[in-house]
Design brief:
single chain, alpha+beta, Conserved hypothetical protein from pyrococcus furiosus pfu- 392566-001, ParB domain, Conserved hypothetical protein from pyrococcus furiosus pfu- 392566-001, domain 2, 2 domains, six-stranded antiparallel beta sheet, five-stranded mixed beta sheet, 9 helices
């Protein structure tokens, strides 16, 4: 892959559609950093959808830029069907969370059914989308979280937001990419429970974004090859009322200069960043 394969574009923030909720504290921290630095470090990642842009990664950045009065944003546009693109799922690991309180909170949610199941049955229910999640306790007990009937995606999403809200703030919550309880217990002795989410499809992410529905924050995990970092675009460019055509012409020239001066580098191997 080389820089010529990158698609960076200046778009209106109003045309960028989120598919997940935001965490206000993270937004507030980023607002302060943006106001101090006065540049956009990393572009949000979007996919083009008929003159709208479905956001795949960067909800905090987009929201913070809106807060500080930017009209536009530089985004990296990717093809959802491109080789190497993948949509995976984070699971929520709960530490130091009283399990009895967790169950009381979940059972109080209207329309949520909590049913004991084998781990295999719970996973099968997730795979066929018969449930909106699985709750695994530290002793290996599994429970399916589902609705009484086959609800539409938007209704399932609203209920899933209530599920996540039921345990937010009751203990520590971390995102994990696997469901190996034995391994998690060895690494985190205070593990109380693990919430496992279904694997969503790209068409579902588009549908939620276009309909204004949002998944809880920290559920979807997009694997994006060739992610652009450290573009460091001045916020004044994003605030100005210049036509988009003029801004994109400037951005194209900016890219040409970077490539001509060989200031764009592609790292094939995974890297660790210590200044995020």
């Amino acid at each position: 892959m080389n820089a010529k394969e990158l698609t960076l574009r200046v778009v209106r923030l109003d045309d960028v559609l989120l598919h997940e909720q935001i965490e206000l504290k993270r937004v507030e921290r980023l607002v302060q950093r943006l106001e101090d630095d006065q540049y956009l470090k990393n572009p949000p990642i979007v996919t083009d959808d008929h003159a709208k842009y479905v956001l795949l990664d960067g909800a905090t950045r987009v929201t913070a830029l809106r807060r500080i009065g930017c009209r536009d944003v530089v985004v990296q546009v990717v093809d959802y069907a491109a080789p190497g693109m993948a949509l995976e799922t984070w699971n929520h690991m709960l530490l130091n969370t009283p399990v009895d309180e967790l169950f009381r909170s979940l059972r109080a949610l209207p329309g949520l059914l909590i049913e004991p199941a084998s781990a295999e049955h719970a996973q099968a229910a997730l795979d066929c989308r018969a449930s909106i999640g699985t709750l695994l306790t530290r002793d290996g007990q599994a429970y399916t979280l589902r609705t009484p009937d086959d609800e539409k995606l938007e209704k399932q999403t609203r209920l899933l937001n209530q599920v996540v809200a039921a345990y937010e703030g009751r203990g520590e919550m971390y995102r994990v990419a696997h469901t190996d309880l034995e391994r998690l217990l060895a690494e985190h002795g205070q593990l109380s429970a693990l919430i496992v989410f279904p694997r969503y499809r790209p068409d579902e992410i588009r549908r939620l974004a276009l309909n204004g529905a949002k998944l809880p924050m920290g559920v979807t995990r997009h694997i994006i090859p060739g992610r652009a970092l450290r573009i460091n675009i001045q916020l004044d460019v994003l605030r100005r009322d210049d036509p988009l055509d003029e801004k994109n012409a400037w951005l194209d020239e900016w890219m040409k200069v970077k490539m001509r001066e060989r200031r764009v580098r592609f790292y094939q191997e995974p890297v660790f960043l210590f200044d995020e």
